[in-house]
Write a structure and sequence with these properties.
This protein is an alpha+beta fold and about 45 residues long. The protein has one domain (about 1-45). Helix content is about 20%, strand content about 35%. The chain has a three-stranded antiparallel β-sheet with strand order 1-2-3, with no helix packed on it. A hairpin with a 5-residue loop joins strand 1 (about 10-15) and strand 2 (about 25-30).
């Protein structure tokens, strides 16, 4: 989280190939008080 806090912007979306599903996504916004969005639905709306 310390490294993510150094980045400009409101958040970081990370997507990777899944093992049991097509892909997995994570959304991190430590500067907004959300280390990781456990649902990540908002990331898919962008």
């Amino acid at each position: 989280m310390d490294e993510l806090k150094k980045l400009d912007g409101s958040g970081v979306i990370v997507t990777a190939e899944g093992k049991e599903v097509d892909f997995v996504s994570r959304f991190f916004a430590p500067n907004a008080g959300v280390d990781e969005d456990p649902v990540t639905g908002s990331a898919h709306c962008t």
